[in-house]
Amino acid sequence: MAIETASPRARHRASRLTTAMQKGSKHNSTTLSPYQVYLSSLAPTGRKAMETLLHQCVSIFAPQQTPAQYNWCQLNFGCLHTVRSTLMECEYAVNTINMALAALRGVAKAAFNLGQLDADNILRINAVKPVKGNAIRTGRRLSQEEIQHLLAMCRTLDCAARRARETAILLVALGAGLRCFELCALRFEDVDLEQGLVSVEQGKGRKCRQIYVAKDVIEALKRWLEHRGFQRGPLFNRLLRNGKVSSKPLSLSGVAYVLNEVQKRSAIPDFTPHDLRRTFITRLLESGVDLNTVRQLAGHSDVNTTVRYDKRDMEWQRKASQGIRF
Description:
α2 packs across α5, α8 packs antiparallel against α10 (about 215-230) and α8 (about 160-175) crosses α12 (about 275-285). The longest helix is centred in the first third of the chain and has 20 residues, at about 95-115. Helix content is about 55%, strand content about 5%. With about 325 residues, it is mainly α. The chain has helices at about 10-25, 35-40, 45-60, 75-90, 95-115, 120-125, 145-155, 160-175, 180-185, 215-230, 250-265, 275-285, 290-300, 305, 315-320; strands at about 190, 195-200, 210, 235-240, 245-250. The strands form two sheets. Strands 1-2-3 form a three-stranded antiparallel sheet, with no helix packed on it. It has 15 helices and five strands. It folds into two domains: about 30-125, no CATH class; about 145-310, Orthogonal Bundle (hpI Integrase, Chain A).
C-alpha cells in the first residue's frame, strides 16, 4: 500500500511545531517573560506598534532598561500613573496615551496569569483611568474628482501590466476598503470573479470577512489577471523592470510606493493607503448604508471604531439638518 507523502508546507508546519514544543519544555510560568507573552498574543500587524510604545513606557519609569530586560513583576500603579502624567505633559495624542496604558495593562495581565503579579497589584494597575478628551482625527477621504484623476493617470502608464495592476490595486482598495496588509495578503483563490466576491482570510485580529464588490472592480481584476495569469498564489505581484510579472507578492512598502507614485503623477494632494479605506467607509455612509452594515464590511469589532472613519464634512451636516421637513 502506498504511503501518502506530506506536502512541503505540512512538513514545515510540523517542524516548527516540534521546535516550539522543545523550546516550551525548557520554560515554566516563572521564567517566561510577560512582555513576550503579551506581544505573542497580538496579531503580527499590531506587534511592532505595541513594542515601540512599551519601549517608550519603560524608558519613563526604568530609563536604564529595555522592555526585555525589565522585571515586570515590579510593575505597579505608580509606573502607569507616571507614564500617563508624563505623556500628558508632553502633549501626546489621547489615543496614543490610552494605547500605551492598554499595552501596560496587557503585560500586567500576562504577568498575573503567569503567577508573577499578585491580585492586589493587578487591581491597582487596572484602576489607572484612561485619558478623556477628543482625539485628533487624522487622515482624509478622496473626492470623486481625485479618484478620477488617479484612474486617468493609471491609463497613461507605458507598461500594460503596470497599468492593469495599479488600476486594480486602486479599485480594490477603494471598492472593498481593505487595509494595506490585507491587500498584500490577498490571493487569487480569495477572489470569486463570477460572484464578484472578495474574501479576506487574514484580517486584523485574525478575523475573516467577505465583501461583494462593484462590477468595475471585478473588470479591473480581470484585466490584471490577463497579465498575471489565473494560477493560485499572491493576487498582487511585483513587476520586473522589463514589465514581466514576478512570482513574489507585493509588500506593504511596495503598495505604499505604487500609490505614492500614482499620487505624484496625478498632482493631487498627498494621501496614505489607509485614506482609501476611509474613503470607502465615508462613501458607504454618504450612500445611506446603515452604520452596522458598514462596520461589518470594514471588519470592525466595535461600531465606535467605524465612526472614527467617517470623513463627511460640515457641508454634509448642513444639508442633512436643513433637509428636515415639517
